[in-house]
Amino acid sequence: MTFVRRHLSGMLVLGIPLAWIVVFMLVPYAIIGTYSFWSKTYPTFRPDFQFGNYATLFSDPQYLQVLLRTLKISALVSVASLALAYPFAYWLVFRCRWAGVRTWLYMAVIAPLWVSYLLRAYIWKTILGTEGILNSFLMWSGLTDAPSDIFLYNQFAMVLTLTYIFIPFMVMPIYTALERIPPNLAEASADLGQTPWQTFLKVTLPLSTPGIAAGFTLTFCLSFGDFIAPFLVGGPDGNLIASVIQTQFGSALNWPLGSALSVVMLVIVLSIVSLSDRLERSSRVGAS
Amino acid sequence: MAAIIQLRGLSKHYSKTIIGVDDVSFSVEDGEFVTLLGPSGCGKSTLLRMIGGFEEPTQGTILLAGRDVTWDPPYRREVNMVFQDYALFPHMTVGQNIAYGLKMAGERRAAARARAAEALELVGLPDKIDQRPDQLSGGQRQRIALARAIVRRPKVLLLDEPLSALDARMRDQMRIELKHLHEKVGITFIMVTHDQEEALTMSDRIIVMEQGRVAQDGRPQDIYDHPASPYVANFIGTTNFLPAIVTRTGAGRATFNCGGAGVDVLTETAPQAGARVTLGFRPEKTRLLAEGETAPNVLEGRIAEVIYYGLGLRTSVELPTGDSLFIDTLLADTLVRSAIPRPGTPARVAIAPHNIFVFPGEVRS
Amino acid sequence: MTARTSRGLISRYGADTAFMTFVALLMAFLYIPIWVLITFSFSSSRSLTWPIPGFTLEWYRKLFANADLQTAVGNSFYVATFATLLALVVGVAAAMALNRYDFPGKTLFRRLILLPITLPGIVTGISMLNMFSLFGFPLSLETVIFGHATALLGVVVTQVYARLQRLPRSLAEASGDLGANPLRTFIYVTLPNLRSAIIGAGLLSFVLSFDEIPVTFFLTGRDNTLPMYIYSTMRRGVTPEINAVGTLIVLASLVLIVISVVVTRDKRS
After folding, report:
1. B22 pLDDT exceeds 70?
2. Per-residue pLDDT tens digits for C113-129
C-alpha cells in the first residue's frame, strides 16, 4: 500500500480541522494584524505600514483609560466570582452530606448558563433602575421614600451583573479540582493534628489552584471582552474596550485603529491563557 | 508443512539510540505454537504488533503464506490478535463482539450469529451470547476475546500476554485450555509472554528475546537443556554460575579449574586452555553427596541455608571461593527428617559432566 | 465529652450553619432575578415596578403575533443547527487528531482550537468580518454559521477529547484487526462510544449558538437572529414583552437541560 493510502484517514482527521483553523482563524488574524498597520485617511483608510495606531493606543489617555477600566472591572468580577464560587464549591464537595442535594445544587448553579446571557444582563437593568424593581420594592416596603440612582449605570452595576453572569464559569473548574482531591488527604492531615482551617490552607487550597487558575482565566477573559452587559447597565462607565472596538468598526470607520485594538486584546488574552497554563502545569507537577 | 510466517531482517528503530526490534529473522511453520519470551522491554510485544500490522517496521519484510504483508494494515492481513486487555467492545453484546469480524467480512447476520455461537461452544461459554462484556469475569472475557479472534479462521493467531491479567489459579487452567484449543483448531499460534513457565508448558517452540534481538530459538527442551547464553540460562529456569579457567580441551570434552576443584565437562564449545569461562548448571541437576559417596566433579563447601517449599528443598551451599550455589531436591517419601542437611555443616556437591553449560567470559549474576 | 471535643462540635456546627446560610443566599442571588423575570412577564403594567398591579397574558399574545420575532427565532434555529453540525464534524476530527497523533505544532493547534472560548467574541467576529469582506463574501446567515462554528469548536473538542482519552486505544486496533478499515472502525466502534459526549457537546453548542451575540453582531447581513432581535428591542426601551420572551427561553432551556441530563446519565449507568 502506498504511504498516502495507508495514512489517508489520519491525514483527513488532521487535515480538516487544520484547514478550518487556517481559513477561519489564522487568515482572519493575519488580516487584522495587517490592517492594524494601516493609516486612517479621511474618510476611510489606506494600506500602509506604520505604528501610528499602536502609538495612539498607548499615548492617548482616553484609550489607556478605557483599557485600564476594562482590566479593573474584569479583575473585580473575577475576584467577586471567586469569593462566591469557592466557598460554594468547597461546601458542595466536602461538607454536603447528601449526594442528591450536591448534584442538584451543582446543576442549579450551572443551569443559568443555558438561559440567555442577554436576558440575564437585561434583568439586572430592570431590577436596578430608578424605576426598577429594587427601587419600587424599597419604596413599597417603606425602607426608602425616593428612588435612588446609585444602583444602575455605574461600575457597581457592571461588576454585579457580570459576576452574576459568569459565576458558573468559576464554579465549574473549582468544583472539578476539589473533587479530584483524594478524601484521605484531609483525613491524614487531621490525623497529624491539623485543625480544619490549617488542613484547608495547607492541603486543600494548594491542590485546588489549577481549578482556581482556570476559573479565574475564563472569567477574566470573558469579562474583558464583553460589551453587551456593560452597555446595558454600565452607563457612561460602560464604555469598555470592546465597545470602543465596536465603534471603530462602526460609526468611526477607523478600521486600522479598531484592528490595532483587537490585536492588543488578542495579545492580552493569549498572555493570560499561557500564563495560566504554565501555572496549572507547574502546580500540578508539584501536587502529584 | 509450509512456512506460514517469515520474518526477514525485521527492525524497529525509534531513534539512533532507542531500538525496539533489531534485525530479527525467523520462520514459523503452519500449525506451530511459538512463544516469544523475554522480560519487559525486550521487544517481543513490538515484534508481535508488527506481525499484526499495528506498528510499521523501519526495515525488513514480513511474509504471510508467501505474500509480502509488511505494509498491509491489520484489516488486510489474515491474522488476528487477542489483546492484553481483551479489547472487547463495551457497547456490544458478546455475540455481537464475536460476530463483528464476520460482519466486516460481509456475512449475513443469521449466519454470523450461528458461527459466533459455535465459537462460544468452542471456548466453553455457550450461554453468554447475549450478555455484555462488563457482566463477565476476567477469565470469561479472555475466552470471548479468543472466540472473537478465532471465528474468522485466521492463518495466524497472535496472543499478547493472554494470561497476565488472570489470577494464579485461572492462569493454570487457561494454560491447559489454550493448549487444547490450539490442538483442536489447528491454527498457528504466536504468543508473547514474560512467564517462562507458560512458555515451557505451552509451546512447540520458544524464541527468547533480548534487547530487540533473538537470543535463542528452539524447542523448550533444547532451550532448557542447552541454553545458548547466560542470559537464556538465567531467564529460563534457575542456573548456578561459577567462574572457571580452561585447563585442557579434547574431542568433545574439556576440563576446568573451578575454584581449585577439577571439573570435567562434555562439551563441543570450550575455548583453548587458559581462557576464562563461566560454568552453568541447574539446581535440580546438582546433587548433595552423602557420607562416603563418590561421583565425578565434586565441589566442597558449607551449607548456608535450607528453604522448604512444599515440593522439595532448596539448599544453598557456600564455596570457599565465596560463590554460592543452589541445589533443588524433591522430597521423596523415603527421605527421613534426619537426612535434611543442617546449616553450617560441610557439604559435598556433584554435577554430572553432561549437565554443565560452558559460557565464554565472566558472567555478572 | 471533654471541653475540647464539645467546642469542636459547636464550631463545626457553627461552620456548617454559616456555610448553609451562604449557599442559601447564593441560590437566592442566582434565582431571584429569574423569578422576577418570569413573574413580571405576567404583569399588567407596562413599567416594571413592584408591586405588580395585575396579571395578564397580553405580552405573550403580542409575542405570538410578532412576525419579526418569529422570523428571528427561525433564523436562530437555522444557524444553530448548521453551526452545531459543522462544529461537531470538525470538532470530533480535531479531538481525534489530538488524541491519536503526535505532530509538530500540536500545542499550537490545540491552543488555537480552544482560543475562541476565552477570546472575546468581538475579536472572532471582527477578524472574520474583515476576511469575508476582503474576499468579497456578502454577510448573511451563512457567514454567521461559519462564525459560530469556529467559536463552538472548542466546546466540542473539550468534551469529545475528554471522552476519547478514556477510550482504550486497543478498541480501535481490535476493530482494525477484525477487518474494519478506518472509516468502518469510526462508524461501528468509535462513534457509538462517543455518543454521550457528542450529544452533550451538541446540545451545549446548540444552546450557545442560539444565545450568541458578539460574533453574530458583526457577521450578520440583514437577517436577525433571536438575540440580535431582542438586543435591538432592548435598546429602544424596557418592556414586559422581553420578559415574556425571556420566560419562554427559560422554559426551553429547562427542557434542554433535562434532556441533556437524561441522555448523558443513561450512558453512564
Report:
1. yes
2. 998 988 888 899 999 99
Whether chain A has a CB inside 8 Å of the CB on B67: the answer is no
A42-79 pLDDT, tens digit each: 766 777 787 888 888 888 888 888 888 899 999 999 99
**Which residues in chain B have their CB less than 8 angstroms from residue A1's CB?**
71-73, 76
Chains that touch A (3 or more CB pairs under 8 A): B, C
Cβ-Cβ contacts under 8 Å, B52 against chain C: 177
Domains of chain A, earliest start first: 60-287 (1.10.3720.10)
Instruction: Check A262 against C123: CB less than 8 A apart.
Output: yes
Number of domains in chain C: 2
- Residue C256's pLDDT band (cuts 50, 70, 90): confident
Domain span at residue C243 reads: 69-268
> Model pTM greater than 0.90?
no
Q: Judge if C166 and C252 occupy the same domain.
A: yes
CB atoms within 10 A of CB A209: 19
Sequence-distant (6+) residues with CB within 8 A of A57 are A63, A64, A67, A257, A260, A261, A264
As a CATH number, domain B3-234 is 3.40.50.300
Contact C180 B85 (CB under 8 A): no
Q: Tell whether A1 is within 8 A of chain B (Cβ).
A: yes
Query: Does residue A288 surpass a pLDDT of 60?
Result: no
Chain A contacts of C12, Cβ < 8 Å?
A: 196
Q: Do C179 and B105 touch (CB under 8 A)?
A: yes
Inside any domain, residue C49 = no
Q: How many CB pairs under 8 A join A and B?
A: 6
Which residues, in sequence order, are bridge partners of residue B298? B350
Contacts of C170 in chain B (CB under 8 A): 83-85, 87
ω into A43 cis (within 30 of 0) = yes
Q: Which residue of B has its CA nearest to A2?
A: B71
B48 to chain A, closest Cα gap in Å: 20
Per DSSP, the three-state class of B314 is strand
Show the cell assigned to B253: 570434552
Question: What is the rounded distance in angstroms from the CA atom of residue B323 to the CA atom of residue B246?
Answer: 18
Locate all alpha helices (DSSP H) within chain B, ordered by sequence. Answer: 44-52, 94-104, 109-122, 138-150, 168-185, 196-202, 220-225, 230-235
* C178 and C257 assigned to the same domain: yes
Question: What's the CATH number where C138 sits?
Answer: 1.10.3720.10
Q: Which residues of B touch A8 (CB under 8 A)?
A: none
For testing contact with chain C, the best of A16, A66, A114, A241 (most C CBs within 10 A): A114
Determine the Cα–Cα distance for residues A124 and A118; give it in Å rounded to an integer.
10
Domain spanning B238-360: CATH superfamily: Nucleic acid-binding proteins (2.40.50.140)
> Could you tell me if C221 and C264 lie in one domain?
yes
CB contact under 8 A, B53 and C180: no
| Model ipTM value | 0.85
CA distance C22 to chain A (A): 8
Same domain, yes or no: C22 and C153: no
Q: Reply yes or no on whether the pLDDT at A127 is more than 80.
A: yes
* Fold match flag (B3-234 vs B238-360): no
Please give the helix or strand (H or E) that residue B257 lies within, else none: strand B253-258
Which of C169, C171, C177 to mutate to test binding with chain B, by most B CBs within 10 Å of its CB?
C177
Main-chain dihedrals φ then ψ at residue B247, nearest 5 degrees: -105, -35
What are B302's strand-pairing partners?
B318, B346
For residue A198, is pLDDT > 90? no
Q: Which of B156-160, B167-171, C98-102, C229-233 has the highest mean pLDDT?
A: B156-160
